[in-house]
Predict the 3D structure of the following.
Amino acid sequence: MFKYIIQLIRSFIPLIFTCPFLFGLSACSSNSNPVIYYNNFDFTEVKNYSFYTSGSTFFDSQSLNYAQRNRVELAIEKSLNAQEFTYSELKQADIIVTYHLVRKNKKDYQAYNKAIRFCAHCLKANAWKKGNDDWQVYPGGLIIDLINPKNNRSVWRSIYPLNYDVKDNSKELNEKIMEAVNVMLSQYPRE
């Protein structure tokens, strides 16, 4: 009898160590990243999106090379297309998607906010909803904004850490960007 109890305990040992890991992993993956958005914008009416073109104040607000821009924009396109949004010309877009890679230079971040008319002080107004009270900007984060084309002002913002490593190859960089974009855009307000 004692021998069977020992065997039973041994068979449960891997399960005992695996369960907390799986619960921790699922808890981490269910935590949402910070999202804030303007409640008075009708997100349900959005069917198509676009990006600002080169030469716009947004485009010039940050110094990204074309490879970085392409990585981010392709990830955004894949994610939005999978959610059944359609890419369109800028003039026909219901929203304009912008993005910013946060670095240690605060002037770049301020120039980006100015270009998309993001008002940090407006967040305290009743019309802005925080999806998470942990909103903060940090170096290494990717910010995505959705812009109302009628007034060229941000109506939705999210941030997610890219956790770049100097040893990352282009495939790893693409995967990190894709993960970040998917997590952020999956929290698009559907109601």
